[in-house]
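ERR on first pass: missing label on line 2. Operator R.T. fixed the label and resubmitted. Corrected input:
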Amino acid sequence: MPQGSVLETITAEEARRVIDAAAAKATEIGQPMDIAVVDAGGNLKAHVRMDGANIGSITIAVNKAYTAIAFQCETADLQGVTRPDGPIFGLSDAHGGRLAVFPGGIPLVRDGSIMGAVGVSTGTIEQDQEVASAGAAAY
Amino acid sequence: MPQGSVLETITAEEARRVIDAAAAKATEIGQPMDIAVVDAGGNLKAHVRMDGANIGSITIAVNKAYTAIAFQCETADLQGVTRPDGPIFGLSDAHGGRLAVFPGGIPLVRDGSIMGAVGVSTGTIEQDQEVASAGAAAY
Amino acid sequence: MPQGSVLETITAEEARRVIDAAAAKATEIGQPMDIAVVDAGGNLKAHVRMDGANIGSITIAVNKAYTAIAFQCETADLQGVTRPDGPIFGLSDAHGGRLAVFPGGIPLVRDGSIMGAVGVSTGTIEQDQEVASAGAAAY
Amino acid sequence: MPQGSVLETITAEEARRVIDAAAAKATEIGQPMDIAVVDAGGNLKAHVRMDGANIGSITIAVNKAYTAIAFQCETADLQGVTRPDGPIFGLSDAHGGRLAVFPGGIPLVRDGSIMGAVGVSTGTIEQDQEVASAGAAAY
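pass 2 clean. output:
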């Protein structure tokens, strides 16, 4: 057996704080959301589907958070470049169905390092982004 | 647009209560766990990976909860019957890698109906079952 | 854009050192191997398929390294408990085909934390384990 | 047992030479990259994720190299024809998420035969193409 455990980059307490802040914003704007937090390796740390949020958005929220880790950017930054006339059109098809290239995924940054990411889905992309931002601000 | 939203069978508040009760038991026995709650449709409602729990157990916990819904039983009930000399040996291969046929997945029952399920993974199967039971008892 | 980049847990130079040490051992015992190194998140950092190694072992080597991260142990430790009469028989079916439950995957540990893992495949399990150990010792 | 082993089309030494040349160019232009080399069967021969390169680009780099073998061309050649107004729009959806239809994947050619391919990802498509070209030139 190894003499240690896998290095953690985000705690369950931090993940809950991010989710609670995002959920509070979602409640404030009256739009239930799926909210997911992943660690720096893109692995799920916590998730909640608020009452009324989409079942289809479970995976979208997780994939938005994963994508923010995978490309070290907000998913919103991928939207223009992956459109039909963009330089990397087709990106979302090139990774086995795990990428989301529209707003709602935001890295969680500390001291210059991305330690995790939050992904939000169910509302409009403006709402998803606003709620994800509220979550990220609580990290 | 439809005149309604998808019927919910478990609330986010209930799911959190189940997770918190399971996490309290996990802390008590000194074994961090992945804990997942799904609704009656087998879709993820909430998940948390406690600090120190396995990354590989994210999927196992979700699949245990899914399996408890999928076959309307505790995952522990599937263990004997799916062994090489059992009547449904091979079951775990028959559903695209989504089934877990060992202890740790328990249905959440109310008034004779299964409303959701909890799945727990990372510890021994005895620990997983004990922690899942503590979660189910809080439903 | 975020003000930082994803936290790294293992460098490319370290990964190459591990691979080169493993490959040297593989050459010494006359058995070409697939050798993969993943980071603490289970994501591929480097891979080489030595001349003569199995094409099918590309994925097995990567999955062995992933499994060592996913369950915070050597893959050899999973062999007994997942056998037909073991407590978690069926584990290898419960994670979408990403788990390898036989020897050849070993965590890379530093200061009590698992920072990555090495996975080796193509030879016998004794050879795979020996070559992975040589790689891990060079970390 | 067969009287032989699977025909190899590219050696590990050649793959490393291609990767090292690509990595040197990546360092020169200040853009860390994922770099993958596959053989004539489209199977991974070697991969490295340079420090700072995208986790999401592991798969993209591998898929660019695979795509260059799969369609016997540079991935850049697929970009125009797969756009919404192109003759094979939809191609990237037609192969289970394994195709990349933008620059960065280049065949490795010897004596008129494609012996393998290199795929590069993380930078802009111009950077990916430049780094892949440097790798291919070293073959």
